[in-house]
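Example record used in the benchmark description.
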Amino acid sequence: MSAENVISAQGLNLTFQTNDGSVHALKDVDLDIRKGDFVSFIGPSGCGKTTFLRCIAGLETPTGGTLSVNGMTPDEARRARAYGYVFQAAGLYPWRTIGGNVKLPLEIMGFSKAEQAERVARVLSLVDLAGFEKKFPWQLSGGMQQRASIARALAFDADILLMDEPFGALDEIVRDHLNEQLLQLWARTEKTIGFVTHSIPEAVYLSTRIVVMSPRPGRITDVIDSPLPKERPLDIRESKEFIEIAHRVREGLRAGHVDD
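Model output (structure tokens):
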């Protein structure tokens, strides 16, 4: 796996101006994300995890520091379609079939009908939804809808996949299954993934690196490089190494609260 940095933040700050005054959402964030990394961001609600992801995506504008994505500004990277983005809710249009939802960005980008069909078939197969092209969102379970949302983000084959708590609303059994599938998908596609979560087990299970963030103003309190192997059955969560990493994440979260 290459050590090339595809996302780099130095001294990143973001302050929102509201009617009640200034809100300091991010403070002095320094982070490099290497090509092929699976990086999870974990911290309490309001700590800036999603805000940082939105900065990477060019959906929020930092008020200080620097941030580059594939050697470009986030806005340039957004216009170059350098990333796919998966939101907390699947966000599928109910009047379009699953295939129609997945091909929507391809239609907007002007891909030919033949190329659209080929890409839709390929990404639906990647997320184990082959054969569901003609179903409508209401005919699928919540977990299947999120997989369709992931397929849509993969359709134009960006190197970076940004995921904002995509499994947060799902029950634990479905979440475990989708965690397994996401790791398999990551292994097959070799994407660079930024993943926001509130779940310590999810962060430890999925990631090559875990970024622990403090309460607002969002700061990085720890960056943990995982020693776990790339192949990870669910029962790895009972291993000594897994438990030790989870403990370090928990300690980092606690230290962030103490420092606040």
